[in-house]
Design a protein that fits this description.
CATH class: Alpha Beta
Helix content: 25-40%
CATH superfamily: Vaccinia Virus protein VP39
Largest sheet: 7 strands, mixed
Order of helices and strands: EHEHEHEHEHHEE
Number of helices: 6
Length: 175
């Protein structure tokens, strides 16, 4: 399966659903459908210098589940999708699927941490995890934290393509 965490209005979900369908795979979409949760993360500037100071307050980037489904049905292939509504801390711990690829666009360091913790161990050999938040310093800290990888993910930190250079971060599962 492919998984997506954080879908906003469903634009990327529509594209991913078409790819999943063409590869005869399923796409599981995880989102609160209520926007970003309450948090105390102090984001200031991206690595490219633009301000992200007031972007991540509770409710930001909210796309209602019906709106997302409508957009995917209109622009993608909803038959390839299943949707899991809820906060990542509640929906990911019991995850029991094999993942070919994971795409996370969750903005917060805390949400990124949760997604990596539960998605990466489920990745199949040769699978990949992609983050769209690689330009946010607090997210970079999560990806670059050796102790997090060892103690919470359960492995040595893998090579992270794009780290400190790109908005897109890619991690491949070798084992």
């Amino acid at each position: 399966m492919f998984v997506e965490a954080g879908c906003f209005k469903g634009g990327s979900t529509a594209k991913f659903s078409s790819v999943a369908k063409s590869l005869n795979r399923k796409l599981v979409v995880f989102d609160s459908f209520e926007g970003i949760p309450e948090n105390d993360e102090e984001h200031k500037k991206s690595i490219f210098g633009y301000s992200i100071k007031n972007w991540f307050h509770k409710g930001s980037f909210s796309g209602d589940l019906d709106e997302v489904k409508h957009n995917v049905a209109t622009y993608g292939d909803i038959s390839a999708c299943s949707f899991v509504k809820g906060w990542f801390d509640n929906t990911l711990p019991d995850l029991d699927i094999d993942i070919a690829g994971a795409y996370i666009d969750v903005d917060l360091a805390s949400s990124t941490r949760t997604c990596i913790k539960y998605f990466y161990p489920r990745l199949l050999p040769g699978g990949f995890l992609v983050s769209q938040d690689g330009d946010f310093p607090l997210v970079i800290e999560v990806f670059n934290d050796d102790n997090f990888w060892a103690n919470e993910v359960g492995c040595k930190k893998p090579k992270i393509h794009g780290l400190n250079k790109s908005k897109i971060l890619i991690v491949y599962k070798k084992e």
